[in-house]
Design goal:
The strands form 2 sheets. This protein has a 6-stranded antiparallel barrel with strand order 2-3-4-5-6-8. A two-stranded antiparallel sheet has the order 9-10. It is α+β, with helices and mostly antiparallel strands and 183 residues long. It is globular, with a radius of gyration of 27 Å. Helix content is 19%, strand content 35%.
Length: 183
């Protein structure tokens, strides 16, 4: 009889603790509302739809930029896709991401490593840090690219201003320097 009383009190305490920690109205934090909040990119709907929805509304590209959202395609168990904000750039093929609902349900991870493993170096295939492994996950995820909250980063260097005609020395005739104009 004493065990039943203890078990009932224990169950009641667990219910109270969990009830206080997570009210009935609380929901599991998903990647989409979190990415929208931290990036300022106002797109709604499942993560796999963000890339198409961004067309014409936001700049998109294949170059990481701090504050941009990396849009993952639907894949395997990740049938709704995924979105994560770039929090730092370590190299042209390695970034840190801040995102929700990746390593554990509803959890937020800040500054976790992601690497571009695509043959073309275009961020179309990535591996992402997975908390339970304490390393990059084993899965290669397909990604569309980056959605930029502001302007897209330049893909090529700025072109120099047009050349103006200049005069160059072409030689001497009887000790007099001659010039030619080159466009």
């Amino acid at each position: 009889m004493q065990r039943k009383g203890f078990a009932a009190r224990f169950a009641l305490m667990v219910m109270i603790l969990f009830g206080a920690a997570m009210p009935a109205s609380a929901k599991i934090l998903q990647c989409v509302p979190f990415a929208r909040q931290v990036s300022g990119i106002e797109i709604r709907g499942n993560a796999y739809t963000w890339w198409a929805q961004a067309e014409g509304r936001y700049a998109r590209g294949q170059v990481p930029q701090v504050g941009a959202v990396l849009a993952f395609a639907a894949h395997g168990k990740m049938r709704l896709g995924h979105v994560a904000m770039v929090s730092a750039i370590l190299s042209d093929r390695e970034v840190l991401l801040t995102h929700a609902n990746w390593s554990r349900r509803g959890g937020i991870e800040r500054d976790v490593r992601a690497i571009d493993v695509s043959p073309a170096g275009d961020w179309s295939q990535v591996r992402v840090w997975y908390g339970p492994m304490r390393d990059l996950g084993l899965t290669v995820y397909p990604a569309h690219g980056f959605i930029y909250a502001g302007t897209a980063p330049l893909l090529q260097p700025i072109q120099p201003a047009p050349m103006v005609p200049v005069q160059i020395a072409t030689g001497t005739a009887r000790g007099i320097l001659t010039f030619a104009t080159v466009d």
